[in-house]
Every structure is written in C-alpha cells, then in structure tokens.
C-alpha cells in the first residue's frame, strides 16, 4: 500500500510538472510573439517617422525654393521650357500612382538639364526624398506639351473656377516624397503655396512714423489728398504726438506746382504753415498700425526674413547704399549705414529701400524715387539714427519705426502713381503656405 501511494504521488507530481512546463512554454512563446510584434511595430513606426521626416524636409526645401525663385516662375523658366503639361498622367507629380490629380490644365516642373527628371533635381537629386512642383498653366491643354504662360493669371485661388488677373492669390503646389533609411518605408505629402505682392498697399501718408516727432528746418510735404478717405488729406501720421515746429509747410500738389515746386508759406494756400498744424497732421492716431512691417509688407515683423530672402535672391542684399543710382529699381535690403547724396531710382522704376537697423542719412543732392522704410530688426535695441537733411527729395513715401531728425529744406512729395508701381510690380512678389492645404497621399 505504501509503495502504491508513493507511486500515485509521483505520477501526480509528474502530471503537474508537465502541465506547468506546457504553461510556461506557452507563456514563453506568447511573450516571444508579442515581443516580435512589438519590434515590428516599433520598426514600422521608425521607418514611417524617417520617411515623413524626409518628406517634411522636402516640403520645407520646396517652400524655400519657391521663395527664392519667384522672379523666374513666369519668365526664365517658361523660356527654358521647365514647365510640362500633366496631361492625364497618374504618376507623380500629376497623380498619386492610381489616379490623375492635376489634369492637362496644370504643368509640372522639369529639370532643365535632364528632361527625364520631373522633380527639382537642384534640391533632391541624390537624397532619400524628392521635391516636385505643380502650377496651373494659362494655356488650356497646351498642344505641344509645354506651357507658354506661367505667371500673372496663371494660378488660381480655387483651381476649379477662379482665375486671377495678376499674381496675387496665385497657387503653386509642392509635392514631396521621403524614404526611410533602409528604403522600405515611404511617405508622400503635398502642400500649396500662395503667391502675393510684396508691398501690401501704398502708405496712406507721405511721412509715417511709429514714434514721437518734432520737425525742424524748412521741411516740406506734398500731401496725400485722400490719405484719410476721399478728400481728406494726410501729410504726417503717427501714434505719438507731432510737433510741427515753425518752418514746416504742407500743401496739395496743385499749390506746390503753381508755386514753382514749393509749398506756399502761408495758409490757406498751404494746409500747414507758420507752426499752425492743419487737419493733415495726424498725431496720437488711433487706430494706428500695431506692426509697421505688417503695414508695409502684409506679414508680421517676426517673418521679416521672407522679405530679406527676396532681396537676397535678386542680389539686392547690401551693406551700404554706395552702389545705388538711377538704374536701381525694386527691393533693396540694406544691412548697414546708408548715406544718400545722389538720385536713386526713377519714376519708371521706383525703389523699395529697406534700411534694417542701420544709420540713414538723406543729404543734399539726394533724390529717392519710391518708398523708404527704416526698419527696426527685432529685438530693436541697437538701431541707428535717421537724419533727413536739407536739399533732399523723397518722391513717394517714407515710413520709419523710430524717430527721424530733420534739418534744412527737405521735401517729401507723395506720388500715388509711383507708389502704385511698387504695389503692382510683379518682381516684388513673395510666397506663403496655404493653411489647411497639407495632404497625406497614403491616408
């Protein structure tokens, strides 16, 4: 009996041990499977992240490429046949691999040196990403596969039914692909960019200052007759008090011309004279632009590099004004002292002169045709002085983030037609991303 009982206990122990062994084995196998699945998930996530990082980097590079080459979109690139009709293609960049997205009314960017490359090879020829550009062509279904008119009127706010008459509101699309480090993961994303004029609108006043002002010397201003609305003249505009002194005169253009190029020294012929400020002197204004850079360019101060990039792309990023003359036109960004003593720009080709923090001296003999903007680069603690001296002329407008010093017979002549040429200048264009236009092709 004792032997039989011991045997039974041995069998029971064996059975329990076998059950535990099987259970442990199953748990181990399950754990290994779970661990393998976790590793695969982590690997997939890693590859997806790597590919999306590359694709997002491609979008950023595409945005910079557009910004730096806006001037060539409608001119050099058309001549070089860089734009090719999408037709009915379902392949990138005109489709997503299964269907056509951009039809024959759209064109894609083609490498000028190798027409087998339908992407921006300058950015991504040997990288784990590709950057593509697509725009609307002004020609309906270009018969020869090329686009003759990419530029004003070529893009649309709504690609389906809204045509623009100029580049404002224009769209250009960037498609970017990215691959993971091991080449097994991929991502394709798209974002649209709008093209807009760099100068938002003509300034309302010949002299606009975001600081307290006191004017000395024989300072003359030919007013904007409609600066405050139809028939409401504005000559000086500031959110701070304005002391006109005793020698400043302001007048309408008619009185200026009738008086042989000078404002009459008395009222009512002049709006402001003999220390008597007229209705055209608007100090302590409310409302007044909270951001002067946004007032001039339509974008906040923090994004000033967008404008600076345009000057850089045009070769107009300068350390001083010594090379400027009557042949100068368009945007110039000056990162240093600017000492003007000669004629700059012209009525046919006005300048947009941005003085970024530097000292500005406009001296006798200087004639500036266009808009001068003395800009305080953030953090606005080391900007140079502004001196507007006698014998100088600004025909257009002057805007400043800080107080200028005026001496002598300085004249600012508000010229609406000349300023409008800056607003309408197609070469003074910039780009921005369209909010909400980001698309993931794999969703």
UniProtKB/TrEMBL annotation:
Residues 9-59 form the Type 4 fimbrial biogenesis protein PilX N-terminal domain. The keyword Membrane applies. Pfam families: PilX_N (PF14341). The chain crosses the membrane at residues 12-32. InterPro entries: PilX_N_dom. Keywords: Membrane, Transmembrane, Transmembrane helix. This is PilX N-terminal.
């Amino acid at each position: 009996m004792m032997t039989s009982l011991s045997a039974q206990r041995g069998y029971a122990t064996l059975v329990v041990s076998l059950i535990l062994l099987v259970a442990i084995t199953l748990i181990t196998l399950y754990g290994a499977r779970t661990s393998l699945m976790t590793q695969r998930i982590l690997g997939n996530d890693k590859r997806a992240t790597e590919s999306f990082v590359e694709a997002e980097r491609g979008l950023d590079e595409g945005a910079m490429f557009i910004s730096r080459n806006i001037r060539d979109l409608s001119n050099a690139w058309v001549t070089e046949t860089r734009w090719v009709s999408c037709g009915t293609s379902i392949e990138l960049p005109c489709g997503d691999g299964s269907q056509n997205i951009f039809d024959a009314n759209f064109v894609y960017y083609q490498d000028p040196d190798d027409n087998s490359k339908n992407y921006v090879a300058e950015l991504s020829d040997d990288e784990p990403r590709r950057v593509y550009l697509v725009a609307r062509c002004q020609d309906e279904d270009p018969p020869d596969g090329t686009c003759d008119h990419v530029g004003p009127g070529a893009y649309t706010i709504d690609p389906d039914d809204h045509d623009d008459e100029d580049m404002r509101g224009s769209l250009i699309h960037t498609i970017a692909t990215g691959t993971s480090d091991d080449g097994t993961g991929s991502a394709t994303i798209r974002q649209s960019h709008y093209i807009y004029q760099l100068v938002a609108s003509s300034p309302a006043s010949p002299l606009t200052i975001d600081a307290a002002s006191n004017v000395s010397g024989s300072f003359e201003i030919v007013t904007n007759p409609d600066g405050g609305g139809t028939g409401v003249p504005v000559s000086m505009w500031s959110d701070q008090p304005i002391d006109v002194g005793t020698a400043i005169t302001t007048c309408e253009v008619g009185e200026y011309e009738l008086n042989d190029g000078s404002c009459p020294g008395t009222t009512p012929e002049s709006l402001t004279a003999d220390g008597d400020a007229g209705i055209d002197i608007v100090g302590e204004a409310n409302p007044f632009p909270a951001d002067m850079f946004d007032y001039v360019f339509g974008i906040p101060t923090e994004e000033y590099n967008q404008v600076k990039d345009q000057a850089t792309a045009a070769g107009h990023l300068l350390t001083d004004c010594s090379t400027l003359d009557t042949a100068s036109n368009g945007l110039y960004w000056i990162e240093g002292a600017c000492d003007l003593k000669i004629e700059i720009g012209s009525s046919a080709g006005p300048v947009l002169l941005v003085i970024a923090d530097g000292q500005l001296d406009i001296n006798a003999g200087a004639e500036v045709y266009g808009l001068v903007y003395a800009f305080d680069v953030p953090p606005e603690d080391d900007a140079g002085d502004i001196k507007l001296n006698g014998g100088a002329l600004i025909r257009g407008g002057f805007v400043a983030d800080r107080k200028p010093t005026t001496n002598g017979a300085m004249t600012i002549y508000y010229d609406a037609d000349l300023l409008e040429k800056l607003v309408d200048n197609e070469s003074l264009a910039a780009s921005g991303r369209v909010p909400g236009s980001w698309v993931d092709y794999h969703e």
